[in-house]
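Quick illustration for those who missed Monday's session on complexes.
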Amino acid sequence: MSTVTIENITRIFEASLSPDMNPRAREVLIHLVRHLHAFAREVHLTHEDWLVGIDYLTRAARLTDDKRNEFILISDVLGLESLVDAISHDARGSETESAVLGPFYREGAPKYGRDETISQRGAQDGASVRIQGRVMDGDGRPVPEATLDVWETGPEGLYEQQDPEQPDMNLRGVFSVDSRGTYVLRAVKPVSYPIPYDGPTGDLLKVMGRHPYRPAHIHMIVRAPGYKALVSQIYDREDPYIESDSVYSVKGSLLIDFERAPEGSDVEFLVRHDVILKRTEAA
Ligand code: BEZ
Ligand code: FE
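Prediction with fe (iii) ion bound:
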């Protein structure tokens, strides 16, 4: 029986794992624990430090429910969701860049027809914008079976599930492209908003000396059979938080211009955004 020491505990941990473990779980766990142990050794983690961490995670767990996931928020302000997104998307080809999903996506948004709006409250939801573009493959050919699942906050910077004033599924919708791969939808000009900061995520931001704001954006997931689903966002180029997104998700290629619509138009702003999808390996 060997005595556990600072030096040998990592090896002892690894040797204790069953050889019948799921290989991916084994790989992830071994690397995670190697880094955790190295971290504790490097910073000389004390019992008091460890208790602070446990208390922090316990508070995050108590705040987490089906409307709010504090663990996603913590991973976001540590840059982890953005890093995972970059690793899994790796857009070195011609396809449109991805952005983080965030914790506020909901499945089952209403389906809308061409040029319909995701705003259920009209002007109360903000300034109207028409967004149009094409969904293409890497060779510029239309992807006629594509759908765009879009969502954004209301003018108070809250998603509908955070805001009792908004109707269910407000500012969310799914649109289909036509046979030429083109889409037209109406939404509202997005606003910058703080991610929830009244709990452990906010405490962490304060400790780091950072603000909780995300620059104004509209989320989208673009799907089509035979193509990799694209989780992305478009950002208002003029937003003051473009350079300091609290969740590190802005990419230069996703900045867009909100152009004022001509006098007499039925919307206030116009936006153009084309999307390029990547084929799945099997296609
Ligand atoms: C969002 O853009 O919806 C979001 C992303 C990360 C954390 C919180 C919100
Ligand atoms: Fe968002």
